[in-house]
Write a structure and sequence with these properties.
58 residues; mainly alpha; 3 helices; 0% strand
Length: 58
């Protein structure tokens, strides 16, 4: 997931596509949803890694 989420190009391509189709407002909403989804995945992975290392050191 990080390889896709870390690239800023996805925001550019998604918004460009929405501009070309005449729906920039929907494009902005999609950008926000993509950002929230990738943030949720990163938070989940960070917690997963934290608990894995916490249990190994105990």
């Amino acid at each position: 997931m990080r390889y896709v989420a870390a690239r800023r190009n996805i925001y550019t391509w998604l918004f460009t596509f929405c501009l070309l189709t005449g729906t920039p407002a929907n494009g902005f909403i999609l950008l926000c949803l993509w950002g929230m989804a990738t943030a949720a995945v990163h938070i989940f992975r960070a917690l997963q890694i934290r608990y894995t290392f916490q249990n190994k050191s105990a």
